[in-house]
Amino acid sequence: MATLRERKTYRDQVLRVLYEAVEGNRLLGITGAQLRRDLHVPEQDLAAACTYLAGEGLITVDWEPGNTPAMVTLTHEGIRRMEAEEEKAATGLA
């Protein structure tokens, strides 16, 4: 099982990769398989990160049998959070 630091890193990575992949469009998503390939995250840790982020209202997840994310999309709140982080980085406040 991942450490607390690793779990937080996985969550941040999921949000960042998803935001970049869909370019802030709520109508687009990416597959769990693509996330796993892009992040090199163990399947169990990816599922845990997605479950957490969905619970926070930042993403939505369509699940496959076996607790595997099939499709992951950003929610409106997820987009707002990522845009705020992008603005902070652009102004040097990050």
Low-confidence stretches: none
Which sequence of strands runs across the widest sheet? 1-3-2
**Radius of gyration over alpha carbons?**
13 Å
Q: How much β-strand is present in the residues?
A: 15-25%
Largest sheet: 3 strands, antiparallel
Number of helices: 4
In N-to-C order, the SSE pattern is: HEHHEEH
Instruction: Count all strands and give the number.
Output: 3
pLDDT averaged residue by residue: 90
Helix content: 55-70%
For the termini, the CA-CA separation is 29 Å
Question: How would you classify the helix and strand content by structural class?
Answer: alpha+beta
- Principal-axis shape: globular
Structure characterization notes:
It is built from four helices and three strands; from the N terminus they run αβααββα. It has a three-stranded antiparallel β-sheet with strand order 1-3-2. The radius of gyration is 13 Å and the shape is globular. It starts with a helix and ends with a helix. The chain is an alpha+beta fold. The relative contact order is 0.19. The protein has helices at about 5-20, 30-40, 45-55, 75-90, and strands at about 30, 60-65, 70-75.
In short:
It contains four helices and three strands; from the N terminus they run H-E-H-H-E-E-H. It has helices at residues 4-22, 32-39, 43-55, 76-91, and strands at 29-31, 59-64, 68-74. The N and C termini lie far apart (29 Å).
Ordered list of secondary-structure elements with their pairings:
Layout: H1 4-22, E1 29-31, H2 32-39, H3 43-55, E2 59-64, E3 68-74, H4 76-91
Helix pairs in contact: 1-3
